[in-house]
Write a structure and sequence with these properties.
Blueprint: E1 6-7, H1 12-23, H2 30-46, E2 52-55, E3 80-86, E4 89-92, E5 98-104, E6 123-127, H3 135-139, H4 143-155, E7 158-164, E8 168-172, E9 175-176, H5 181-184, H6 187-200, E10 204-208, H7 210-219, E11 235-236, E12 242-246, H8 254-263, H9 272-283
């Protein structure tokens, strides 16, 4: 079924603007960024399990993503490890008539993604949200999520765009970057996310998890309380699109999934992809 869906088939304008946004984070030439997308598409099409590695210090300036220097986050002697950058992706078919924007959290990395040739203190992994370019993750860890995306694309005739609220992940002495206040509160993340929304003009935004929902709320100055396990209530963010806050579909979210399904009138025995699809179908009101 993978070959029936187009992967990262952006319009020329979309791709250019996405590359401009990525270039605000890392000083990689736009042609090189487009080259990453070409490689992702090849990996997806051929069903490979590859990661893309890039030198962290020699090939681009990782500091560019944030207007404060690394030494203001931690001491120069401390080690920056497990660096990851996830580039936005999309799935579509020629029949796609609407756009659904899925917002996740961050490009999490840990030691397991690296190897002896690519040590985690020298290389960054250039990836995609949920590693969906990678056949291994589509068939295993994120099998249900990918099945949900396939169903949205094919049954709802929608283009699905996926991006993270945090565009870069790293660890300092194994402390995740999302724990560093200067990083999580930096305006560059919200600015780029807002530019992505403006570029795509989605019909619906699905925010996975509390942090993703909070980010959308901050961009549009929404004061609503967040309860991810409660009944999903679509929110009109503007006259252009709705927001659908949902429980994060990760393995950690499984603890709360039965409550989430029950509160939304969904059979708690259903797998994640089927239950989420029913909720989205019922709540999006196109």
């Amino acid at each position: 079924m993978d070959d029936e869906i187009e992967f990262c088939n952006f319009s020329e304008n979309e791709l250019t603007q996405i590359c401009i946004n990525i270039n605000k984070l890392i000083s990689v030439p736009q042609d090189e960024i487009k080259g990453y997308y070409h490689k992702f598409k090849e990996i997806f099409k051929k069903g490979f399990n590859n990661n893309i590695y890039n030198l962290k210090t020699d090939q681009y300036d990782i500091n560019k993503y944030i207007p404060i220097q690394k030494e203001k986050i931690y001491d120069k002697e401390d080690e920056w490890i497990n660096t990851g950058i996830d580039m936005p992706i999309c799935f579509s078919t020629p029949m796609s008539k609407k756009t659904i924007f899925i917002v996740g959290q961050d490009p999490l990395r840990n030691e397991q993604y690296y190897d002896s040739e690519h040590p985690n203190n020298e290389y960054a992994i250039i990836g995609t949200p949920y590693s969906l370019h990678n056949n291994y993750y589509r068939k295993n860890r994120f099998k249900e999520l990918f099945s949900l995306i396939q169903s949205i694309v094919k049954e709802m005739e929608a283009k699905v765009y996926i991006s993270d609220i945090y565009k870069i992940y790293f660890a300092v002495n194994k402390d995740p970057s999302i724990n560093i206040l200067r990083f999580t509160e930096n305006t560059i993340h919200k600015k780029i996310l807002k530019e992505e929304i403006d570029l795509l003009e989605p019909d619906l935004i699905i925010s996975f998890g509390i942090k993703a929902t909070e980010s959308i709320y901050k961009i549009y100055n929404i004061q609503n309380k967040i309860s991810i396990t409660s009944e999903v209530e679509p929110q009109c963010i503007s006259d252009k699109f709705r927001l659908l806050p949902m429980l994060h579909p990760s393995s950690q979210g499984q603890i709360h999934r039965k409550i989430f399904f029950g509160n939304n009138g969904i059979d708690i025995s259903l797998p994640m992809n089927e239950g989420y699809l029913r909720i989205i179908n019922e709540k999006m009101y196109f």
